[in-house]
């Protein structure tokens, strides 16, 4: 499995790419494999300010629905518009075209407290 080193990870299997005070968020390759084929992504928190670990949406796979947790506190910005018609992008390109939301991060230093790629690999037993 692939775990890009420039990303930070959560124990709930989300990833974060920080660019200035804006972060892109998605789910990891491990998470999408565990869920199976993604058929729907439901995110209705655009414009809302949430704390770290609050639910910002759900992802529906053929066999289950799973909550999505915000990795760090911030305001939910854009939702990936491509996921509405192509939710399978989460499966085929979880770190690229399958990103889910951008957030304006309340405190960029909080991202440093998330797991590195090596720590995340250890968490999932890779």
From TrEMBL:
Biological-process GO terms, alphabetical: glycine decarboxylation via glycine cleavage system; protein lipoylation
Protein name as catalogued: Glycine cleavage system H protein
Location of the Lipoyl-binding domain: 22-104
PANTHER family per the UniProt record, alphabetical: GLYCINE CLEAVAGE SYSTEM H PROTEIN, GLYCINE CLEAVAGE SYSTEM H PROTEIN-RELATED
Gene Ontology CC, one term: cytosol
Protein family per UniProt: Belongs to the GcvH family.
Record note on cofactor: Binds 1 lipoyl cofactor covalently.
Keywords, sorted A to Z: Lipoyl
Cofactor entry: (R)-lipoate
N6-lipoyllysine modifications at: 63
NCBIfam families: gcvH, PRK01202.1
Secreted among keywords: no
Subunit description: The glycine cleavage system is composed of four proteins: P, T, L and H.
Family annotation (SUPFAM superfamilies): Single hybrid motif
Role description: The glycine cleavage system catalyzes the degradation of glycine. The H protein shuttles the methylamine group of glycine from the P protein to the T protein.
InterPro entries to which the protein is assigned, alphabetical: 2-oxoA_DH_lipoyl-BS (IPR003016), Biotin_lipoyl (IPR000089), GCV_H (IPR002930), GCV_H/Fam206 (IPR033753), GCV_H_sub (IPR017453), Single_hybrid_motif (IPR011053)
């Amino acid at each position: 499995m692939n775990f890009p080193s420039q990303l930070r990870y959560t124990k709930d299997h989300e990833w974060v790419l920080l660019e200035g005070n804006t972060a892109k968020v998605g789910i990891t390759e491990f998470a999408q494999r565990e869920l199976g084929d993604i058929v729907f992504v439901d995110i209705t928190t655009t414009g809302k300010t949430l704390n770290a670990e609050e639910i910002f949406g759900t992802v529906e796979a053929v066999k289950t629905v799973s909550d999505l947790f915000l990795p760090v506190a911030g305001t939910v910005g854009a939702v990936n518009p491509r996921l509405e018609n192509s939710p399978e992008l989460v499966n085929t390109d979880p770190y690229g075209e399958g990103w889910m939301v951008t957030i304006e991060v309340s405190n960029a230093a909080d991202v440093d407290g998330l797991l590195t790629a090596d720590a995340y690999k250890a968490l999932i037993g890779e």
